[in-house]
Amino acid sequence: MTIALLTPLDCDVPARGGLRPWRARALENCDECPIRSFSICSALDRDGFGALQAIGQEVTFRSRALLFMEGEPAEAVFNVTAGLVRLFRLFADGRRQVVGFALPGDFLGLPPDDRHMFSADAAGLTTACRFGRQTFSELVAEHPDLLRRVHDSAVRALDLAHDQMMLLGHRRAEAKIAAFLVGLRERWARICGSSVLVPLPMGRQDIGDFLGLSIATVSRTLTRFARERVILIVPSGVRILDLARLRQVADG
Amino acid sequence: MTIALLTPLDCDVPARGGLRPWRARALENCDECPIRSFSICSALDRDGFGALQAIGQEVTFRSRALLFMEGEPAEAVFNVTAGLVRLFRLFADGRRQVVGFALPGDFLGLPPDDRHMFSADAAGLTTACRFGRQTFSELVAEHPDLLRRVHDSAVRALDLAHDQMMLLGHRRAEAKIAAFLVGLRERWARICGSSVLVPLPMGRQDIGDFLGLSIATVSRTLTRFARERVILIVPSGVRILDLARLRQVADG
DNA sequence: CGTGTTCTTGAAGCCGTTCAATGAAAGTGG
DNA sequence: CCACTTTCATTGAACGGCTTCAAGAACACG
Question: Are strands A66-68 and A119-122 parallel, antiparallel or unpaired?
Answer without folding.
Answer: antiparallel
